[in-house]
Write a structure and sequence with these properties.
CATH superfamily of the largest domain: L-amino peptidase D-ALA esterase/amidase
Number of helices: 12
Helix content: 25-40%
Strand content: 15-25%
Order of helices and strands: EEEHHEHEHHEEEHEEHEHHHEEEHEEH
Largest sheet: 7 strands, mixed
Shape: globular
Distance between the termini: 21 Å
Strand order of the largest sheet: 9-16-11-15-12-13-14
Structural class: alpha+beta
Length: about 400
């Protein structure tokens, strides 16, 4: 079971004017399950995205990048198409042809240019994409288009996820109220650079293309780039931000204005909720762990230490076992690659329990206190480096027997 995470209530997911969602069964990998999602956008919509930094990126990532780069020529993005069950990665030139063929099929149905369609895939790597099944199912996606279909969309894009992930709220930007709704999928191959997942956040705010791109980068850096389950970066990671412009408000053009900051923070809030849901549903996870590193010289240094802790199999298995073998955390701090780190200034806390002071076991620390915290389903690890004013935070989970079973049996 995921850590303190339940499926979203469909009634809580707010429609975003200017965007409709439709789903269908295409039998891409398994029969009798929704595995194809189409999002149709108004002509006035703006789209921005960030993608995986894995050099072996999937064909749909390559095509989506190309199409976004052509927006000034082809016109606005009119549709996103997402399939599960097959990643269309490691598929060479055929994979690119298949991704483009999918876009062409969508374009014919929506009467737009293929370059106005962005493709996304997730699932098994190195298997040919069954394009003919996708093409056959697309009319059903169009028949089911509905502005309120966020819950079914969230369920459709799942792979090894056990719970659909969605979040939605209204926010005040200047004198106007905007809606922000998003969905994401991910449970394994979760590591930053990009975010190792698929995420789609939409708003009815009016935002210029340049400002929207700034916002998606900012939000990703503080949400999806702050999570890790297993340290493996996927080939298909994509985070897309859509602004339909249907709210009656002045267009946001200045990334240094109070209105932009309010918009940026709203998008980041929804993105962080989705990112945390991914970690809570990490493959085999039983615990949700926040790692906060503070008093570092700069934020990159703090992140490096935080990820050294969050990636360590020894640390993560200790959390699974509720074993306060906390010297493993200090070892991870020392292994983070901070060449001039003075371990004599490092303090370690487990929630409110001071475990190590000035690099050594705190004299008043009792293992029973550590055990009490380790048994919780939500835990905060706090490391004070004692060498500056910067801080960083990442979210992770434990590593259990089920993680091995899920990934060993994934294709069977």
């Amino acid at each position: 079971m995921p850590v303190n995470l339940s499926a979203p209530n469909p009634r809580d997911l707010l429609a975003v004017p200017g965007l409709e969602l439709g789903v269908a069964e295409a039998a891409i990998r398994k029969a009798n399950r929704k595995d194809l999602l189409l999002m149709r956008l108004d002509e006035c919509a703006q789209v921005a995205a960030v993608f995986t930094q894995n050099r072996f990126c999937a064909a749909p990532v390559t095509v989506a990048r190309e199409h976004l780069a052509q927006v000034h020529v082809s016109g606005s993005i009119r549709a996103l198409v997402v399939n599960t069950g097959n990643a269309n990665a490691g598929t060479g030139s055929r994979g690119l042809s298949d991704a483009r063929a999918t876009c062409e099929a969508v374009a014919r149905l929506l009467k737009c240019a293929p370059a106005q369609v962005l493709p996304f895939s997730t699932g098994v790597i190195m298997e040919p994409l069954p394009v003919e099944r996708i093409v056959a199912a697309l009319p059903r996606c169009i028949d089911t288009l509905d502005a309120s279909a966020w819950a079914s969309a969230a369920r459709t894009i799942m792979t090894t996820d056990t719970v659909p992930k969605a979040a939605s709220r209204k926010y005040k930007v200047g004198e106007k109220q905007i809606t922000v709704t998003g969905i994401a999928k991910g449970a394994g191959m979760i590591e930053p650079n990009m975010a190792t997942m698929l995420g789609y956040v939409a708003t009815d705010a009016r935002v210029s293309a340049a400002v929207l791109q700034e916002a998606v980068r900012y939000a990703a850096e503080r949400s999806f780039n702050c999570i890790t389950v297993d340290g493996d970066t996927s080939t298909n990671d994509s985070f897309v931000l859509i602004a339909t412009g249907r709210t009656d408000m002045p267009e946001l053009r200045d990334a240094n204005s109070d209105e932009y900051y309010a918009f940026r923070d709203a998008v980041t809030d929804i993105s962080a909720r989705l990112a945390q849901a991914i970690v809570r549903d990490g493959e085999g996870a039983t615990k949700f762990i926040t790692v906060r590193v503070e008093a570092g010289r700069d934020e990159p240094e703090c992140r490096k230490v935080a990820y050294a802790i969050a990636h360590s199999p020894l640390v993560k298995t200790a959390f699974f076992a509720s074993d306060p073998n906390l010297g493993r955390i200090l070892a991870a701090v020392g292994n983070a690659g901070i060449a001039d780190l003075d371990v004599g200034t490092v303090d370690l806390y487990l929630d409110d329990v001071l475990v190590a002071k000035n690099g050594g076991r705190y004299l008043e620390y009792q293992e029973a206190d550590g055990q009490r915290v380790m048994k919780q389903s939500e835990i905060t690890v706090r490391v004070n480096l004692g060498r500056g004013l910067s801080a960083a935070r990442v979210w992770t989970c434990d590593l259990s027997h089920d993680y091995v079973s899920i990934n060993a049996d994934y294709r069977s």
